[in-house]
Write the structure tokens for this entry.
Amino acid sequence: MAHQIIRNVATVGITTCVPSAIEENISQPFFKEGEAEKVIASTGIERRRIAPPNVTASDLCFKAAEKLLEEIGWAREDIDGLIFVSQSQDYLMPATSCILQHRLGLPVSCCTFDISYGCSGWVYGMSVASSMLAAGTMKKVLLLVGDTPSKFKSRKDKTAWPLFGDAGTATALEYQQGAPEMFFSLFVDGSKFDSIIIRDGGCRHPFSTSSLEEKEIEEGVVRRPLDSVMNGMNVFSFGLKRAPEVVNDVLALSQHQVDDPDYYIFHQANMFMNEKIRKKLGIPAEKVPYSMKDYGNTSCATIPLTINTTFGTADMLRGKTVVGTAFGVGLSWGSVLLTLDNLKHLSLIEYNEESI
Amino acid sequence: MTLNEFMDVLAEQFEDTEREAFTPQTRFKELDDWSSLTALSVIAMADEECGVSINSDVVNNAQTVEDLYNLIFA
């Protein structure tokens, strides 16, 4: 069973970088009269940030990492590891984390790798990063988690396009003796791998001219085999069952009651689904912040993004116990319980091309 | 849960259609206020009211209210 109790690892900072361009759901061309209002009311998503064509998830993560490193005062030569979690890597090869090592001026003595995960990616990334540090020989690891769903969702798909936004995040973890324990509970069910999928462009279905052929699935839903497709009903049913289960599982592992944690930060799928999950667990609304109204579902970036949009400074979250829970593509899901005694910095910035 | 009780909770998932309009033979996906959101509400209803986790096949395969009842409690 993928349970972990990690000792002597502290989360010291989290920064999110979002694109500056805002896209409003109320003015999407594929909505018929009155339809946009209904979609906004049920999803809770009013607007999203969309990266320009030349800006990738790694660019957003790079900017977040630069800001975070400056704020927490880490010397770059002291960084021992960099992990990049995304479904929108720069190239099929090499791993984007290699490129980021150089761009960030990290030493060649650093180990880097990519983790190909979406929605549940931050929880999985935190698990791997903290495991690397727990042995005590590596001291500092940078976890970069970001996605640009706008680059693989069809702009002509009214069932997908209004839900997703772009964001890049950086989380700094370090070895600190006596840091509060971190608890992880991770799960995967590959039998439902095609519930959220981009069929073409990998090795199973290599890119071909047919990858570009548009197909009208229904009115207002046009996709190519290169675009991401989701079985909304199955993903909804999955989240409703698995998210509460995994929260209860991490609470049991850490010997906490549901009332103990100060905050529960969930993957931001949509308001309809997230509220069902919150109510099923009986968690009061004030303990469950959301960022989806202004940012939508930013895939693996939703948990750090929600932390950064909710808590303006580290003082607001330092010493608090937080449960982060994510679920989605894979299908995979997981929870982490953290007590943030050593948090130094939190910030939210906008991507500004001139500063790169 | 009896079929009658099931129809009581199913009717609540529809915005406009009244309870009286539901019979075991009602083709619920042909009602005017059926939408993709109602489909999600039915999945949530199965979870909350019936304690059963259903996937899209159940909603896609059920034509009548009685079909849905039988598939959920299969």
